[in-house]
Amino acid sequence: MELFDGVIRIDRDKGMGAEWCRPLLSYLVAKTAEGALPPYVPRFGPMPLQNLCKMALLWQQLGFHEEAGKLAAWLLHLGPRFAPLWCLEELFDEKEVIRLFDQLSSIPLGGLEEVEDLLLCRFPKMQTAFTFSGQGTSLGVIISESVEIRALGPQSLNQKFGIAGRGMDGWMRTAAFSDIWFEAKISSEMARCQLDLRFVGVSVDLPLQFAFYVKAKHIRVGAEEIVPRSLRRFQGEAAQVACEHLRICVKLPHRVEVIPLAGEGCFWNCEFLVLFSIPAAMPQVTFVIEN
Q1: Is position 114 within any domain?
Q2: Range of the domain at 99
Q3: What is the pLDDT of residues 178-208, one digit of tens each?
Q4: How many Cα neighbours within 13 Å face the side chain of 234?
Q5: CB 69 within 8 A of CB 109
Q6: Domain count for the chain
Q7: How far apart (Å, rounded) are the C-alpha atoms in residues 102 and 53?
Q8: Same domain membership, residue 278 and residue 230
Q9: How many helices and strands (H and E) does the chain possess?
């Protein structure tokens, strides 16, 4: 379905990607028919940024100017580089995100408000955004100059990724296993981000990894350098993975895999998947990501 001269496209076949627009479409249909308008309160929650852009544009077209201006201001403050946040891998469309962010300039901006379920930190050499809400989506996004960790979170051996539901007091459920929960304590400063993770439910029968989907030109583990779109990968013990200038470090060596990816068309357009095994005997780990 196409609305307002092609500014906004809504694909009904994308499941949860289209859920957000149903109340708004009902309101639009009633307004177009000049009938009795159903109740509609403009508000939003965690969802892909491309959908939030569409929502702001629709609100502006439907006369909710104040709400559209506030949402557009928040989106532009966040920026399109954080688009993988709250976005399923199969719904991510980087070109569409850029196109929609460009369209936001048509909306008069309102006041900037804080958004629940988002911890945003900006420093000259590193920007981070973390959330405790998701549906098979990332715990956060880390941006450092030319390197981006576009998605990070728990992942099963069959690649079921992310967090599920809305966390409480720092505790979240994994999307892969309803019986596995984890606590995340997150801090960011200047050129350094620390994630203290503690898992409950990991066992030999329910193995778990922690995944980082990375956009970078190369990765170095020890003496080995791995480049995108190659057959060479790393599998072994390591305490540090260098993604160009950005390092992912753990205090003690962990079982690590580095897998080159295509870089376009899948996995948030990332070049690498970095996996750290979570040991069942000691299911806690501290990651330090530093520039």
Answers
A1: no
A2: 2-106
A3: 999 999 999 998 889 999 999 999 999 999 9
A4: 27
A5: yes
A6: 2
A7: 10
A8: yes
A9: 5, 18
